[in-house]
Design brief:
167 residues; mainly alpha; three-stranded mixed sheet; 49% helix; globular
Length: 167
């Protein structure tokens, strides 16, 4: 009997959902980043900078789609200074969710252990290449693995791979 391997998350496929935001590709103003999410009334939009390609584009789209799922919290001109801490917390939560979906922790653990068994390091570059994700997604995924490793007091999967602290 063939085993069923779950498919990794493909943010592009989410755009087929009826409530998905409209995606526009436009050059964004200086300081806006390379992707933004915003709502105008009942409509939601994701704007991606045309310079985004491949896995960077997928990661940016995924990030903005998760903002959409979570209700679209954003930093806006005129917000009180204290709002910055809320936005930073939300950005971290969104980045962690992108990493969870694009680099499933069990698959990552298997890869890291396999590399360690070969005497090789599984750093962010290797993880990004193996899972075809942006470098920042790989870094966050390794952080999540290390966090899980610490929580579960496991045998030091991340440490065996040469990562004694979060990346």
């Amino acid at each position: 009997m063939a085993s069923c391997v779950p498919m990794r998350w493909n943010p592009q496929a989410e755009l087929d959902e009826p409530d998905s935001p409209t995606v526009l590709v436009r050059v964004l103003p200086e300081g806006a980043g390379r992707a933004v999410y915003w709502r105008r009334g009942a409509r939601a939009f994701v704007v991606l900078d045309p310079s985004l390609e491949g896995c960077e584009r997928a990661a940016a789209l995924g990030h903005e789609l998760i903002h959409h799922e979570r209700g679209g919290l954003c930093d806006d001109v005129g917000m009180p200074a204290a709002w910055g801490a809320v936005v930073a917390r939300e950005e971290r939560a969104v980045n962690r969710e992108v990493a969870r979906r694009m680099v499933p922790v069990d698959e990552l653990e298997e890869f890291v252990v396999g590399m360690a068994d070969l005497g090789l390091s599984a750093g962010p570059g290797e993880v990004a290449e193996q899972f075809d994700v942006a470098q920042w997604v790989a870094e966050v995924a390794l952080e999540l693995l290390l966090d899980r490793d610490r929580r579960e007091d496991r045998s030091g999967v991340a440490e065996r791979a040469g990562h004694p602290q979060a990346v």
